Amino acid sequence: MSERRLLMIPGPIIFEPSVLRSLSKGHLSHMSTEFTKLFAEVLGNLKRLLFVDDEFKTIVLAGSGTLAMEASTTNFIRKDDNVLVISNGVFGDRMAELLSRYPVKVDLLKVNSPGEVVDNGLIEERLKEKNYSLVAVTHVDTSTAVRHNIEELGHIVKDYNALLVVDGVCSVAGEEIRMKDWNIDVVLTGSQKAIGVPVGLALIWLSPRALDRLKETNARYAPYYMDFNKWIDVMDSYEQLKPIYFATPAVNLIVGLHESLKLIFEEGLENRFRRHRVLSEAFRKGVRSLGLNLLAKNDDIAASTVTAVYLPENIDLSDFRREMASRNVIVAGGLYPSIKTRYFRVGHMGPVNANDIASTMATIERSLVKLGYPINLGDGLSVVQRFLSEHGF
Amino acid sequence: MSERRLLMIPGPIIFEPSVLRSLSKGHLSHMSTEFTKLFAEVLGNLKRLLFVDDEFKTIVLAGSGTLAMEASTTNFIRKDDNVLVISNGVFGDRMAELLSRYPVKVDLLKVNSPGEVVDNGLIEERLKEKNYSLVAVTHVDTSTAVRHNIEELGHIVKDYNALLVVDGVCSVAGEEIRMKDWNIDVVLTGSQKAIGVPVGLALIWLSPRALDRLKETNARYAPYYMDFNKWIDVMDSYEQLKPIYFATPAVNLIVGLHESLKLIFEEGLENRFRRHRVLSEAFRKGVRSLGLNLLAKNDDIAASTVTAVYLPENIDLSDFRREMASRNVIVAGGLYPSIKTRYFRVGHMGPVNANDIASTMATIERSLVKLGYPINLGDGLSVVQRFLSEHGF
Amino acid sequence: MSERRLLMIPGPIIFEPSVLRSLSKGHLSHMSTEFTKLFAEVLGNLKRLLFVDDEFKTIVLAGSGTLAMEASTTNFIRKDDNVLVISNGVFGDRMAELLSRYPVKVDLLKVNSPGEVVDNGLIEERLKEKNYSLVAVTHVDTSTAVRHNIEELGHIVKDYNALLVVDGVCSVAGEEIRMKDWNIDVVLTGSQKAIGVPVGLALIWLSPRALDRLKETNARYAPYYMDFNKWIDVMDSYEQLKPIYFATPAVNLIVGLHESLKLIFEEGLENRFRRHRVLSEAFRKGVRSLGLNLLAKNDDIAASTVTAVYLPENIDLSDFRREMASRNVIVAGGLYPSIKTRYFRVGHMGPVNANDIASTMATIERSLVKLGYPINLGDGLSVVQRFLSEHGF
Amino acid sequence: MSERRLLMIPGPIIFEPSVLRSLSKGHLSHMSTEFTKLFAEVLGNLKRLLFVDDEFKTIVLAGSGTLAMEASTTNFIRKDDNVLVISNGVFGDRMAELLSRYPVKVDLLKVNSPGEVVDNGLIEERLKEKNYSLVAVTHVDTSTAVRHNIEELGHIVKDYNALLVVDGVCSVAGEEIRMKDWNIDVVLTGSQKAIGVPVGLALIWLSPRALDRLKETNARYAPYYMDFNKWIDVMDSYEQLKPIYFATPAVNLIVGLHESLKLIFEEGLENRFRRHRVLSEAFRKGVRSLGLNLLAKNDDIAASTVTAVYLPENIDLSDFRREMASRNVIVAGGLYPSIKTRYFRVGHMGPVNANDIASTMATIERSLVKLGYPINLGDGLSVVQRFLSEHGF
């Protein structure tokens, strides 16, 4: 079967062919000079990606985004700590569920309905009420395609004692994150999203403040495999080109990450973030012009990396996805439990370009018409085209 | 730089990722059992592709399409033979130029203007006038994107003594060719077109009548490397799983061809030809709706594998191609000498799908607007969408 | 730099080229029919690999072998449980260290000196003394290259209440493990060892008895990411071809695992285990014939997947490894803390063949001579050759 | 089936993994800036490979080595020219057979028995006797593994009117060729030999004197596809980064050639030629020590890229090759017609290293013993080891 389909789901994404090819490199020891240099470059480039300097640490672990969530929080907790979890969707809820296994008191501050983000003012009220040791928030919740204003939140949280942990699984390398300027203490992501490498790497960034907290907690409640004390030593050793061993790093995926980061910096971060913004706005405008509604309540909180779209009343999600797939465009179903059969999600991050957006819109139009939804073919595309054209695409 | 561009030129085309990966297979001797089986399957599948049986022979040579043209004719000539070359464009002219190096008398029957095809009635008149030993015709001329009706021509030529040689470089695997039913004696192509494998293989099919002629000529005027007597023995030996050596076959490209043919038969020939027809017609309709003119005088002779489009008067070809390329769609310039800066060509063969057509049309629209051509963005796309939708795409 | 080196370390190993190529497959959703079928086949083949039936469960997680160790034990513990860890080397010690983070009482039964394995009789004595809920043992300790007799141990432990957890990181797919017949409850491994896939997958097998225990513990102390209740549901759903989502499976690595398992079963398990036995014995005989000593006290406990060899007194490990590397053979240094600069380790698992053994032995000979060690070049090779020849290699 | 076999035949050879991976690059137009730069670098590096400057031309054609032979001679002939072909084996004979199709008078000067090379003194005698326009010689004849002293021959021929054409199919990039200093006019090779790229490229180098002759002949007798006038324009255009089109260049194979040349110059030409010399001598010494005879009459004329070895009287070639293959080493049978079942050939060019030589020797020993040939296992290896060690390998 042809592999020439567009994988427009929010991860795994469409990968750069050169990244995929690089995975096939063989005969590479995790302790070799060649790999060590390459890994050191990866660690340095990861810092540049979030605009941080060498006071910050980056950690690359074999594992998925969920592992990154667990590692990024459990290393910083002390018994009976108060933890505030902000939930804008499924992955905020997951963070709360995850932390509830540990000896901390979790307060969950949640949106009223999917498609909203928690108001930063409300968060500040909570911070005033109770002494939280940690605030965790999802930057872009993959389930509802909304984006939290973490810049604003960072400026709020810095006046409190809490570490700010940002789940950037669906945002890092697609949305701008200025970790240092925005006062964020921990950022985490997974490789298969906007950073553009197949599933299997958990990536974490730590601020000096997070490192201080780690000294305090000594990673007492972190799982052994996720103990940052061990991992920081390993990462430092690679950065100093004198590798030590704890658990074997995921050599081939890291080679892929090296290639992907190279391409990211060739494009330039400003260009990259702008591309994600313009393409996503074009797509949202196109979808809305067909009479479809988005989950995101307004454009200010709509993510640049993924869009969640309600289906028309009488169109079945499975039917719709099957029609799309038969036309070589793969979209995801809903994920927010109460409404998950009523909407679909389109990922548009990483190397996605205007051609992918045009193809996806064209395919949505024809699939909807096939399923009896009354639109004029081309109307959504016209809107997309005009927006792209106005923005120089 | 991102490799995620659409290579919409008439060869090399967009290749299937699995075909590209298969090229990397190593450690394969051209005399091994593994390669022998695979090559035998290739030779068999090539026959199925043109709907011929085992009385026909297929030959796979390392070389390009031009080599295939030379091999496919020079093996069949005798001193002072009359040869009739039908030229619908650059590649017909090339065939005449090529044959003029050999001791034959070449008559060239040529279109009056690019975008036409030579009338089969005129060809028959010539056949009546002189005793031709060989008639050569380009099925789809890549330079002007027209398609000759070779079915009709085959039925005419069979009543004469001439062998009918069809240059299928830009048609095989994209346009239907029923070599046996249509009385065609020799078909040739190159790997980098609709058959979907990187440049480097010349492919030739021979009818029983061509094989008889070969006995007569004994390949006297063919270059040594192209001597079909030698190659038929080699191909027979592979088909019988007892390989012999003449010149080393292009192992890795043949592995790629094996994979590509596998995918072609998974799709099914009927589906494949229909896909090419529908997509090309959609594209032509879209382009025309923008006020652009095609080289092809009418739809009956417009190729399904490539389209040639006149640019608006005041738009420069280099500018246009650069705008397209900056949007990740690569199109070709003109090739017909007298007008080559006035038109562009779009290849849409092999694994091309509706998404590629939509993306290309969208990019043409935005590029034209960028260059000041007054159209409504989306108009061409609407036409494409309606046509695709009506035809179940 | 040429990649044509022999990576003779105990993981990552030399991978099959077709496994490496398969990693480059793109555009594959973790929820697609294509991936679902492939993953279901992987899960089934993993069961065949350990000779177990469908009452057993297999789990594939993104992560490394250390994660597999943590997941494979923490799911089965209850507060204040007694846990017996058998340590034959570094990885046994690691298991004890890991478990000491959890609310269980860990007893560590350890070898007196590196190169021994703990006596199964001593283990049984301990089992009689105290009510252990879990016994953990390393099948082959990568640090010292010894193999524990887990068949015998399984028959002992089955009469007690304890679950038997076998760390098969350096053994699965290289050493025979008949999980069901040998009464083993949990087996774990990592992908980059004898199972032949780049780093990044943690693989776990569970017996019905382990599943019963899981019901009891409800995975109370397992990290969230490692909660087998969640993962078993996910794996069951893939086996039933109706995938559900928890954390995104490592698609590309699982594609690689599919290919590797295909090759493993093409070879046949009996052939594969015999190959590992013969090649490792040949290598040990060759090394000993040069006057070098092995860590493994005797051949009965010497692993088939890795060999640990003491260097001659006056030869420096870094010098030796550098000489080897300059000759394109990569070996590992020591890992057992007290002696780690005094020995080197050679991995010979996965697709390693007699050529690799001969090359490695030849390179060891020349490297030693270069460093002044007095041997006759060819002596070790002669021993290797005779043993291989006698065994039909 | 495992691909981890050693392909020790004289082409296709073992390719560098990075070369194989590079073949999979897609979406690359033959007219793109990216490909143009890359091709220009290839053309420049090809010149460096033969130590020539920009007065020389390099041509890269889709085709095999036999095509290169035909192109490299037919471009330079005039009607009734006298041509002298030196035959050291099958490929010299082939050159004569090939030229006999053209209107020239071919004199064949041939060895008395396989394993010899024609004496350069005899060639000079012939040159004195008759006015030859062209002398063609095989540098290393793949069929008998002998190497002609072309440096000496070049110094002889330069005093005559003849162009010296060297068939370097089995030597370029494995044996030193100083084309300019040695007064060689034309060198040709194929990609699948020591230059390290899968089958499909014919490579030709032309001296200023050859270019002058070309002006004279105007390529009158060259096949159209091989007309150097056309190709030189194409190559010049790529070198000037302004590509023109004649026949589509073999994009993906040229990408592979780019990577292979990069690796060749990373190693350094001196290192590379020395490696070939030392490894081949080690191999010959090893084989002889087992009592086997080489075809090459003495070491001075034994090639560094391939060795031809007589089998012991009572050992069947098919049996021997099958035993070798079952041990993952692929060797070639004989090719010289009168004795082709009595010897085997081992290619050792391109990225072949000492490990491959040791493995091949080890496998030859065990295969011979299996077939009843009385040797002491390890004896050949000891000789190989000592020679390698003495030469710093």
In short:
The structure is a homotetramer of 393-residue chains. Chain A is α/β, with parallel strands linked by helices. Helix content of chain A is 41%, strand content 15%.
Structure description:
4 copies of one chain form a homotetramer. In chain A, helix 2 (33-49) packs across helix 9 (251-267) and helix 10 (269-289) runs parallel beside helix 12. In chain A, strand 6 and strand 7 (146-147) form a beta hairpin. The radius of gyration of chain A is 21 Å and the shape is globular. In chain A, strands 2-10-9-8-5-3-4 form a 7-stranded mixed beta sheet, sandwiched between helices. Chain A has a 3-stranded antiparallel beta sheet with strand order 11-14-13, covered by helices on one side. The first copy, chain A, contains 13 helices and 14 strands. Chain A folds into 2 domains: 6-12 and 268-390, Aspartate Aminotransferase, domain 1; 17-266, Type I PLP-dependent aspartate aminotransferase-like (Major domain) (Aspartate Aminotransferase, domain 2), CATH 3.40.640. The mean pLDDT of chain A is 98. By secondary structure, the first copy, chain A, is of the alpha/beta class. At the A-C interface, strand 1, helix 1, helix 3 and helix 9 of A face strand 1, helix 1, helix 3 and helix 9 of C.
